[in-house]
Design a protein that fits this description.
Elements lengths: L5 E6 L5 E6 L4 E5 L4 E6 L4 E7 L3 E8 L2 E8 L4 E8 L3 E9 L7 E4 L4 E5 L4 E5 L5 E6 L3 E8 L2 E7 L7 E7 L6 E7 L4 E6 L3 E6 L4 E6 L3
Antiparallel strand pairs: 1-20, 2-3, 3-4, 4-5, 6-7, 7-8, 8-9, 10-11, 11-12, 12-13, 14-15, 15-16, 16-17, 18-19, 19-20
Amino acid sequence: MNNLTELQRLVSPAPKPQSLAWDGATLWMGSRETKRLYAINPATWTVGWETEAPGTPWGLTFVGPELRAICGETADDNRFIRRCVPGQGFDPNFKLPCPDDCGAQLGWDGQRLTVSQWYPKKLVTLAADGKVERTIQVPHGICGQVVVEGTFYLVTTDAEETNEYFLTRFDPRPTVPKIEVLARIGFSARALAWDGKNFWTNHREQNQIVSFQRPD
């Protein structure tokens, strides 16, 4: 199996980068340490706007012009899906509990949100009201996800404390869903975003954000 091809490895504008999302022009990052979201200009690598999250922003995705974030709140790190409007901040009235109080990353396929559950190894697709529509069991722990052209690309691992992390492609549309491990990432990655050409992930413990090519 080939290692992925890194394109850039950049210093994160805040420590412990945890979540990522792409809105078409801007890379958004949520920090586990500061509990804030940052809008990063990828050309200048500067922060144009930032806001405080209501908890640890574990997962992040765009739903149209708005962000959705999985936030870990309270002393027990209870998991909720929150709404954030760029330039304004978090909506205090939007708060959906994650199924089973469990959620790490978020994906949006243009119609529905999908919550990934790392240790249960599940993708859970939600209706607009937060009710579970579909649950898919996958063979690996999930610590990053993004939906590209109807297909899930995942950061996966079976050994969290090692560097054995992989880029995995999962297509849930066939009668028998298809899953493929595409490349070895080689470090403990967190989150996954797609800018239309390349992927982005975090090397959280090194305070770095990494872009890499889409494997053939």
